[in-house]
Specification:
27% strand; 24% helix; 13 strands; 7-stranded mixed beta sheet; 2 domains; globular; Aminopeptidase; alpha+beta; 4-stranded mixed beta sheet
């Protein structure tokens, strides 16, 4: 029988949050992520993990307060469902997803949704896995798709108009980022130093409020790369990968 933990304001400082476990360079990012979660638990944010040392968790919250450019009424939004390493293939992802579905129903939600893509892309869930549980495509932007499991057909979530732009009015290399991911903080610091040392201009835009998160000009706000006004990827960059990207 698998044992799971739901993080609370009282327990979060004593628990790991699965990502960047034991990596000193990402400790600031982990601390920022924990503070972000603390501020959202009272809004219904759920971080549920296996009681083990590994990347095994699901994270979701009501769409009205979720830091994503998605509009809906009484839907839960799944930020991330991650089961890694030796924990794969043991039914844990199934148990985590089923918990979130049942929890959503008990809360009287209209449904539950998440972001996927037509072809597998980094940092996104497997489309087929969610489809197995009845999730269907309700909106799309290019290769990216919003999947929803609807309990009540009276409302359907959708991407905001701003998210559909996938463009900005700035030719400089621009990175949108937020504390949603613990890996972000270190890479922002590294890229900031790299840009100063090499006299390269990078425009960093921090998403630090719900309003900003709901109005970003693309699907992603935990990390989004734009170049010459176009969205190019949601890949988290360090100095080396940034240099390769521009050469």
């Amino acid at each position: 029988m698998n044992e799971y933990i739901n993080l609370t304001v009282d327990s979060i400082d004593k628990e790991h949050i699965c990502c960047a476990i034991g990596d000193p360079k990402h400790q600031k990012g982990v601390d920022n992520k924990k503070e972000w979660i603390k501020g959202k638990i009272n809004e219904g944010h759920v971080f549920r993990k296996l009681n083990a040392r590994g990347k095994i968790f699901i994270e979701y919250e009501p769409i009205e307060t979720a830091w994503v450019p998605i509009i809906g009424e009484k839907y839960e939004y799944i930020y991330c469902l991650w089961v890694a390493g030796s924990f794969k293939g043991k039914g844990i992802a199934k148990e985590l997803l089923e918990y979130s579905i049942n929890d959503s129903k008990q809360k009287g939600m209209n449904g539950i949704c998440t972001l996927t893509s037509k072809k597998k892309k980094p940092f996104l869930g497997e489309k087929k896995f969610f489809e197995h549980y009845g999730f269907k495509v309700v909106d799309s932007i290019g290769d990216y798709e919003l999947l929803a499991l609807q309990f009540n057909r009276n409302d359907t979530p959708k991407f905001s108009d701003n998210a559909k732009k996938m463009k900005i009015d700035d030719d400089k290399f621009t990175i949108y980022y937020s504390p949603e991911c613990p890996y972000v903080e270190h890479e922002i610091e590294e890229l900031t130093e790299y840009s100063k040392t090499n006299n390269i201009e990078i425009n960093f835009i921090k998403i630090d409020s719900l309003e900003k998160a709901k109005n970003v000009p693309c699907i992603f706000n935990n990390w989004a790369n734009f170049y010459k006004g176009e969205f190019i990827s949601n890949t988290i960059l360090n100095a080396n990968s940034f240099k390769k990207l521009l050469t």
